[in-house]
Amino acid sequence: MRAVWGAVAWPEPNGAQFPGQRVRFGVDTGEDLVSLFAPYPVLPALAGDITSMQLTMTKTTFATVEKSQEAMNTWHVIDASGQTLGRLATEVATILMGKHRPDYTPHILVGEGVIVINAGKIRLSGNKANTREYTFYTGHPGGLRKRLLGEYLESAPDEVVRLAVRRMLPKNRIARRMIARLKVYRDDAHKHAAQKPDNVDISAS
Questions:
Q1: Residue 83 falls within a domain, yes or no?
Q2: What's the per-residue H, E or C state across the chain?
Q3: Over the stretch 100-142, which tens digit does the pLDDT of each residue have?
Q4: What band does 61 get if pLDDT is binned at 50, 70 and 90?
């Protein structure tokens, strides 16, 4: 027997024998049957009859293949003029991961594409331009190289933005697909008009 929407029915106590034991039951939401768990004390004493009680439940929404394809065709333009590097990277990473969507699913690519323009006009807070260093290795003995953030931002602002966003994404394979949907440009010109991107103002967020 199926319970009506929002009601929970127990045909039997499912073998619960002591208080505190969690018992499985089903809820018919009208669309599908959702399995839930509840402590045994909430179950009424049954004598062969089905007893129902009202329950408020939260339904989790997962992304589908159609939603993933919809996200793949959605692009946004973000103007980085006057934006702080870290706050800009946070907003971009959120959109790439899809955490701004109600159907965010960690194992499905539901993030949308981002185009960052005017990366050369990003500002840094504090004294990071003269104190923060980026290090990399050439692969040869003694090949440690260091670069100040201010110098790096002046010569290659697109790489600085990409590095900041990449380090805010998950450390797995799907993140490589996310970062591939990030396009960064030094000035206000980009070549993605065919994607029909919409402008996103992150200054108010």
A1: yes
A2: CCCCCCEEEECCCCCCCCCCCEEEEEEECCCCEEEEEEEHHHCCCCCCCCEEEECCCCCCCCCCHHHHHHHHCCEEEEECCCCEHHHHHHHHHHHHHCCCCCCCCCCCCCCCEEEEECHHHCECCCCHHHHCEEEEECCCCCCEEEEEHHHHHHHCHHHHHHHHHHCCCCCCHHHHHHHCCEEECCCCCCCCHHHCCEEECCCCC
A3: 988 888 888 999 999 999 999 999 999 999 999 999 999 999 9
A4: confident
Domain that holds residue 184: 65-200
Task: Please tell me whether residues 49 and 125 are part of one structural domain.
Answer: no
Q: How many domains are contained in the chain?
A: 2
**Residue of higher predicted confidence among 179 and 45:** 179
Residue 155 CB contacts under 8 Å (≥ 6 apart), including other chains: none
Bridge partners of 19, per DSSP, are none
Residues 26 and 88 in one domain: no
Q: Is 134 exposed, middle or buried (0-12, 13-18, 19+ CB in 10 A)?
A: middle
